[in-house]
Structures are given as C-alpha cells and as structure tokens.
Fold this sequence. Notes:
The protein is α/β, with parallel strands linked by helices. It has two domains: 7-63, Signal recognition particle alu RNA binding heterodimer, srp9/1, CATH 3.30.720; 76-123, no CATH class. The protein has three helices and eight strands; from the N terminus they run βαββαββαβββ. It has helices at residues 15-26, 47-52, 85-95; strands at residues 7-12, 29-34, 37-41, 58-63, 76-78, 98-99, 111-114, 120-123. The strands form two sheets. The protein has a four-stranded mixed beta sheet with strand order 1-4-3-2, covered by helices on one side. Strands 5-8-7-6 form a four-stranded mixed beta sheet, with helices on one face. A hairpin with a 5-residue loop joins β7 and β8 (120-123). The radius of gyration is 16 Å and the shape is globular.
Amino acid sequence: MTSRFTELAVDCHDPERLAAFWCAVLGFEVIDRSEGKVEIGSWVPTAEAVRARQMPPTVFFVRVPEGKAAKNRLHLDVSPIDRSTDDEVTRLLGLGATKADVGQGSGRSWVVMADPEGNEFCVLRTLAPES
Length: 131
C-alpha cells in the first residue's frame, strides 16, 4: 500500500480569512475548525474512503506568527470550469486576490495571482465547454 495525499497545509496569519477566500475560489466548505486552524474541502474525509481510493485533498490553514518571506516553492493551480480564464481572473480579483509577478514574463497562457496573504497561485486555461 502507498500513502495518500490527504491535505495541503498552508501557514498564514488569518486562517478564517484565507479559508473563506479559498472556499469562494474552489467551491469548498469548512469541514473542521479549532483554535488557529481551519480545514476546507469538497468532502469530509473518512479513513475508509481514503483507503479505498485517492480523493481530492483538503486544505488546512494554520495560524503562524511569521510572515511570508519569499516566493512559494509550492503553489496551487486552478482551472475555471464555467467561464473564461480572463473572467475567472476578474472574479478572483473581486474576492481579494491580486495579480503577481514572479518573473513569469508576458504572453503566458496562465495568470499568476496571489491570495489575500500573498501566497502565489496560477489560473490556468479554462475547462469550460466551448459554446
């Protein structure tokens, strides 16, 4: 048996704020919270379900005292499923994201953005059906 990718932990100053942002981005819900920690996901994991097959990981936001110091070495990529990439970027800007420059240059098929605490992520090509 192998291991399963079950959660992605994100250090942050305000777990509630980032959880709300990423719930709005991904359509996830808060599935657990405790002092200084909030977990979001598209499902509530059980040991049986995780053993049975690989499921989407949850995202776990944990409060830490230090701030972000450099470009992320790991980041999320998201793909819009019901709108164009440009329309999704506009939606995410409205949720509190910003465009980010990590040296990617211009003319890319993706857009680098940052969440409200500066964690970079990319918006990739749309997966919306062509009309």
